[in-house]
Amino acid sequence: MATDHRAFEVFKKHFSHPYTYIPWVEPERTESLSDYTQRMISPHLKDSGAVRVAIGLSFGGVVALHGLDQGFFTHVILVSSVKGRDEFSPFFRFLRIVPIYRMLPDSWLKSILVGSGLIPAGLRHEHQLMFRQMFDQFSPSYFKWCVDRLIHIPKSKQQKNVYHIHGTHDEVFAYRYICSAEAVPGGSHLMIVTRAKEISRMVEQILQQIKQTNTIQV
Which tens digits make up the pLDDT trace of 51-77? Predict the structure, then answer.
Protein backbone atom coordinates (compact mmCIF):
# COMPACT_ATOMS: atom_id res chain seq x y z
CA MET A 1 0.00 0.00 0.00
CA ALA A 2 1.37 3.37 -1.09
CA THR A 3 4.80 2.09 -2.14
CA ASP A 4 6.10 2.81 -5.61
CA HIS A 5 9.02 1.67 -7.77
CA ARG A 6 11.52 2.94 -5.18
CA ALA A 7 10.62 0.05 -2.87
CA PHE A 8 12.20 -2.26 -5.48
CA GLU A 9 15.36 -0.23 -6.12
CA VAL A 10 17.68 -2.44 -4.05
CA PHE A 11 15.90 -5.60 -5.21
CA LYS A 12 16.44 -4.66 -8.88
CA LYS A 13 20.21 -4.56 -8.40
CA HIS A 14 20.08 -8.34 -7.95
CA PHE A 15 17.35 -8.99 -10.55
CA SER A 16 18.37 -9.70 -14.14
CA HIS A 17 15.02 -10.12 -15.91
CA PRO A 18 13.23 -7.48 -18.01
CA TYR A 19 10.17 -6.09 -16.27
CA THR A 20 7.32 -3.60 -16.51
CA TYR A 21 6.52 -1.48 -13.46
CA ILE A 22 2.81 -0.75 -13.01
CA PRO A 23 2.20 2.42 -10.95
CA TRP A 24 -0.68 2.98 -8.57
CA VAL A 25 -3.52 5.22 -9.71
CA GLU A 26 -5.86 7.25 -7.53
CA PRO A 27 -9.01 5.20 -6.90
CA GLU A 28 -12.54 6.49 -7.25
CA ARG A 29 -14.26 6.45 -3.87
CA THR A 30 -16.84 3.78 -4.75
CA GLU A 31 -14.66 1.83 -7.19
CA SER A 32 -14.48 -1.92 -6.67
CA LEU A 33 -11.12 -3.63 -6.39
CA SER A 34 -11.81 -5.57 -9.59
CA ASP A 35 -12.60 -2.40 -11.54
CA TYR A 36 -9.57 -0.67 -10.07
CA THR A 37 -7.32 -3.56 -11.06
CA GLN A 38 -8.60 -3.42 -14.63
CA ARG A 39 -8.07 0.34 -14.85
CA MET A 40 -4.63 0.19 -13.25
CA ILE A 41 -3.16 -2.67 -15.28
CA SER A 42 -4.78 -2.54 -18.73
CA PRO A 43 -2.87 0.51 -20.08
CA HIS A 44 0.46 -1.22 -19.44
CA LEU A 45 -0.04 -4.83 -20.57
CA LYS A 46 -1.37 -5.51 -24.04
CA ASP A 47 -0.10 -8.97 -25.02
CA SER A 48 -2.63 -11.26 -23.36
CA GLY A 49 -1.05 -14.35 -24.90
CA ALA A 50 2.28 -13.98 -23.11
CA VAL A 51 3.31 -15.95 -20.06
CA ARG A 52 3.63 -13.13 -17.56
CA VAL A 53 4.66 -13.24 -13.90
CA ALA A 54 3.59 -10.51 -11.47
CA ILE A 55 5.58 -9.75 -8.33
CA GLY A 56 3.17 -8.17 -5.86
CA LEU A 57 4.32 -6.46 -2.67
CA SER A 58 1.86 -6.15 0.24
CA PHE A 59 -1.46 -4.72 -1.07
CA GLY A 60 0.10 -4.91 -4.52
CA GLY A 61 -0.04 -8.68 -4.13
CA VAL A 62 -3.79 -8.50 -3.55
CA VAL A 63 -4.16 -6.45 -6.74
CA ALA A 64 -1.90 -8.91 -8.59
CA LEU A 65 -4.19 -11.79 -7.61
CA HIS A 66 -7.13 -9.89 -9.11
CA GLY A 67 -4.99 -9.35 -12.21
CA LEU A 68 -4.42 -13.10 -12.34
CA ASP A 69 -8.17 -13.73 -12.20
CA GLN A 70 -8.69 -11.19 -14.99
CA GLY A 71 -6.11 -12.83 -17.25
CA PHE A 72 -3.44 -10.13 -17.12
CA PHE A 73 -0.96 -12.51 -15.48
CA THR A 74 -0.34 -16.23 -15.67
CA HIS A 75 1.60 -16.47 -12.40
CA VAL A 76 1.87 -14.34 -9.27
CA ILE A 77 4.66 -14.13 -6.70
CA LEU A 78 3.45 -12.57 -3.45
CA VAL A 79 5.93 -10.83 -1.15
CA SER A 80 4.75 -9.72 2.32
CA SER A 81 1.13 -10.09 1.26
CA VAL A 82 -1.96 -12.25 1.80
CA LYS A 83 -3.85 -14.64 -0.45
CA GLY A 84 -7.22 -14.04 1.22
CA ARG A 85 -8.97 -12.84 4.34
CA ASP A 86 -8.47 -16.21 6.03
CA GLU A 87 -4.80 -15.17 6.42
CA PHE A 88 -5.72 -12.03 8.39
CA SER A 89 -4.77 -11.50 12.01
CA PRO A 90 -7.62 -11.00 14.53
CA PHE A 91 -7.18 -7.22 14.20
CA PHE A 92 -8.03 -7.20 10.49
CA ARG A 93 -10.90 -9.62 11.08
CA PHE A 94 -12.25 -7.25 13.74
CA LEU A 95 -12.08 -4.32 11.31
CA ARG A 96 -14.07 -6.33 8.79
CA ILE A 97 -16.87 -6.80 11.34
CA VAL A 98 -16.59 -3.41 13.05
CA PRO A 99 -15.28 -0.93 10.42
CA ILE A 100 -14.37 1.84 12.86
CA TYR A 101 -11.89 3.26 10.33
CA ARG A 102 -14.84 4.57 8.30
CA MET A 103 -15.71 6.98 11.12
CA LEU A 104 -12.30 8.63 11.02
CA PRO A 105 -11.51 11.59 8.76
CA ASP A 106 -9.37 10.43 5.85
CA SER A 107 -6.43 12.56 6.97
CA TRP A 108 -6.53 11.06 10.49
CA LEU A 109 -6.53 7.53 9.14
CA LYS A 110 -3.54 8.27 6.93
CA SER A 111 -1.61 9.72 9.88
CA ILE A 112 -2.46 6.70 12.03
CA LEU A 113 -1.35 4.25 9.34
CA VAL A 114 1.93 6.04 8.68
CA GLY A 115 2.69 6.25 12.39
CA SER A 116 1.59 2.74 13.34
CA GLY A 117 4.58 0.75 12.15
CA LEU A 118 4.23 0.82 8.37
CA ILE A 119 7.61 2.54 8.50
CA PRO A 120 9.54 0.56 11.15
CA ALA A 121 11.85 2.56 13.40
CA GLY A 122 14.60 0.02 12.73
CA LEU A 123 14.90 1.00 9.06
CA ARG A 124 17.97 2.92 7.98
CA HIS A 125 17.35 6.66 7.92
CA GLU A 126 17.48 6.93 4.13
CA HIS A 127 14.92 4.14 3.81
CA GLN A 128 12.60 5.76 6.35
CA LEU A 129 12.82 9.00 4.38
CA MET A 130 12.14 7.17 1.12
CA PHE A 131 8.98 5.51 2.44
CA ARG A 132 7.69 8.76 3.95
CA GLN A 133 8.14 10.44 0.58
CA MET A 134 6.24 7.59 -1.08
CA PHE A 135 3.36 7.83 1.38
CA ASP A 136 3.18 11.62 1.05
CA GLN A 137 2.38 11.41 -2.66
CA PHE A 138 -0.95 9.65 -2.07
CA SER A 139 -4.14 11.32 -0.91
CA PRO A 140 -5.77 10.50 2.46
CA SER A 141 -8.79 9.08 0.61
CA TYR A 142 -6.48 6.63 -1.17
CA PHE A 143 -5.45 5.09 2.17
CA LYS A 144 -9.03 4.70 3.39
CA TRP A 145 -10.04 3.11 0.09
CA CYS A 146 -7.13 0.65 0.29
CA VAL A 147 -7.94 -0.37 3.87
CA ASP A 148 -11.60 -0.91 3.01
CA ARG A 149 -10.90 -2.97 -0.11
CA LEU A 150 -8.19 -4.97 1.65
CA ILE A 151 -10.28 -6.15 4.59
CA HIS A 152 -13.13 -7.16 2.27
CA ILE A 153 -11.14 -9.47 0.00
CA PRO A 154 -12.52 -13.02 -0.32
CA LYS A 155 -11.05 -16.13 1.23
CA SER A 156 -7.99 -17.57 -0.46
CA LYS A 157 -8.37 -20.29 -3.06
CA GLN A 158 -6.02 -23.02 -4.19
CA GLN A 159 -4.03 -21.84 -7.20
CA LYS A 160 -0.96 -23.72 -8.34
CA ASN A 161 0.42 -20.67 -10.16
CA VAL A 162 0.57 -18.50 -7.01
CA TYR A 163 3.80 -18.40 -5.00
CA HIS A 164 4.21 -16.72 -1.63
CA ILE A 165 7.31 -15.38 0.16
CA HIS A 166 6.71 -14.12 3.70
CA GLY A 167 8.84 -12.92 6.59
CA THR A 168 8.43 -14.55 9.99
CA HIS A 169 8.55 -11.10 11.63
CA ASP A 170 6.09 -9.33 9.33
CA GLU A 171 4.58 -6.44 11.30
CA VAL A 172 1.45 -6.08 9.14
CA PHE A 173 0.45 -9.61 8.12
CA ALA A 174 1.61 -11.87 10.94
CA TYR A 175 3.36 -14.98 9.65
CA ARG A 176 1.52 -17.39 11.97
CA TYR A 177 -1.71 -16.78 10.04
CA ILE A 178 -0.13 -17.28 6.60
CA CYS A 179 -0.56 -20.61 4.82
CA SER A 180 1.65 -22.25 2.20
CA ALA A 181 4.37 -19.61 2.04
CA GLU A 182 8.14 -19.85 1.83
CA ALA A 183 9.39 -18.36 5.08
CA VAL A 184 12.13 -15.77 5.42
CA PRO A 185 13.41 -16.16 9.01
CA GLY A 186 13.40 -12.75 10.68
CA GLY A 187 12.02 -11.07 7.57
CA SER A 188 9.91 -7.93 8.12
CA HIS A 189 7.07 -6.48 6.07
CA LEU A 190 9.60 -4.34 4.19
CA MET A 191 12.15 -7.10 3.64
CA ILE A 192 12.03 -6.30 -0.09
CA VAL A 193 14.35 -3.46 0.97
CA THR A 194 16.15 -4.83 4.03
CA ARG A 195 16.69 -8.36 2.63
CA ALA A 196 16.64 -7.52 -1.07
CA LYS A 197 19.43 -9.87 -2.16
CA GLU A 198 17.87 -12.82 -0.37
CA ILE A 199 14.39 -12.09 -1.71
CA SER A 200 15.73 -11.70 -5.26
CA ARG A 201 17.39 -15.10 -4.97
CA MET A 202 14.12 -16.69 -3.84
CA VAL A 203 12.22 -15.00 -6.66
CA GLU A 204 14.84 -16.22 -9.14
CA GLN A 205 14.36 -19.81 -7.96
CA ILE A 206 10.61 -19.51 -8.53
CA LEU A 207 11.13 -18.00 -11.98
CA GLN A 208 13.43 -20.86 -12.91
CA GLN A 209 10.68 -23.32 -11.93
CA ILE A 210 8.22 -21.48 -14.17
CA LYS A 211 10.78 -21.13 -16.96
CA GLN A 212 11.17 -24.89 -17.25
CA THR A 213 7.85 -25.01 -19.06
CA ASN A 214 7.25 -21.41 -20.17
CA THR A 215 8.90 -18.36 -21.70
CA ILE A 216 8.28 -15.74 -19.04
CA GLN A 217 7.76 -12.00 -18.83
CA VAL A 218 7.84 -10.18 -15.49
Answer: 899 999 999 999 999 999 999 999 999
The closest alpha carbon to 208, from 54, 17, 68, belongs to: 17
Partner residues linked to 184 by β-bridges: 167
The residue with greater pLDDT, 11 or 127, is 11
What digits encode the pLDDT tens for the residues 21-34? 999 999 998 999 99
Residue 47 confidence class, pLDDT cut points 50, 70, 90? low
5-217 domain in CATH 3.40.50.1820? yes
- Could you state, in order of their start, the residue ranges of all structural domains in the chain? 5-217
- Ordered alpha helix ranges (H), 77-139: 90-97, 106-113, 125-136
Q: CA–CA separation, 97 vs 103, rounded Å?
A: 14
Helix (H) or strand (E) holding 57: strand 51-57
How far, in Å, CA of 168 to CA of 39, rounded? 33
